[in-house]
Amino acid sequence: MYGIPAGLIDTLLAEDAAFGDLTTRTLGIGSCPGRITFVARDDQVACGTEEAAALLRHLGAETVYILPSGSSAPAGTLLLAATGAAAALHMGWKSAQTLMEWASGIATETQAIVAAARTAHPDAVVACTRKMPPMTRVLAVRAVLAGGGVMHRINLSETILIFQEHMTFMGGKTEIGAAIRRMRSTAPERKIVVEVTDPVQAIEVAGHAPDVLQLEKFSPQQLRRVHDALSERGVCPVLAAAGGVNRSNAAAYVSEGARVIVTSAPYFAPPRDVQVTLDRA
Question: Which conformational region is residue 48 in: left (phi greater than 0), alpha (psi within -120 to 50 degrees), or beta?
Fold first, then answer.
């Protein structure tokens, strides 16, 4: 599916076993051959299996089965299996398990929001923000993609989004038209997104032809007012609903005219449960 970023495995192991596994070492069982399996204990979208496998291989184990990230994994589904010395299996056990549980939680919630949004329109897109916990971005992005979402912004370097806070330094909303024209000239291959905070501002900014209007904390009813007003004027930016959008209300926003759901909700989803079994081979 993708390559594992350099340094990720070392970072994971440094957190959990920087100086090895004291218990396994003092028991003297490190050289015993064994097998480890990871099985979905509840329904989930598998994620993090490739990284967990890479971690075990790094420790000297051999992976014998990997369910690809993004796969549906009903309860009882085998996610990953590996063989190797007990020292390797014990050292990688919890890091691999926790990684898959956390990533699968994000992927599963993302898929749920996508499914909810698409009950209202089959082309609705769920775009996740960059508000994941610090230092987890690589894995969080992969989990969003595994769940069928897209990234709203991976980082500040690759997207244009004008916030209200930018307008403060521009002299206010009266400068937005000139700013959009300047951006079209200096970054012609990029979409221009503008955040708006009320219907009046949304209609005014839409007249300057941004590609996307990001409607911050609008109600579904307010979004409909904006959608209808812009349709009457023949102005058609993509409407993105942002701020407090989740699986419970995504369909309502899409029904009222949003085609993009901007959300951070998947990052706060509970981890999915993964059962681990270690046996002597």
Answer: left
DSSP one-letter code for 19: T
Query: At the top level of CATH, which class does the domain 8-112+270-280 belong to?
Result: alpha beta
- Amino acid (1-letter code) at residue 217: K
Please state, in angstroms and rounded to a whole number, the distance separating the CA atoms of residues 231 and 225: 10
Q: What is the pLDDT along the chain (281 residues), one digit of tens a residue?
A: 466 776 888 888 888 988 889 999 999 999 999 999 999 999 999 999 999 999 999 999 999 999 999 999 999 999 999 999 999 999 999 999 999 999 999 999 999 999 999 999 999 999 999 999 998 999 999 999 999 999 999 999 989 999 989 988 887 556 899 999 999 999 999 999 999 999 999 999 999 999 999 999 999 999 999 999 999 999 999 999 999 999 999 999 999 999 999 999 999 999 999 999 999 98
Q: Domain extents for the chain?
A: 8-112+270-280, 114-268
The third-level CATH classification (topology) of the domain covering 114-268 is: TIM Barrel (3.20.20)
pTM: 0.94
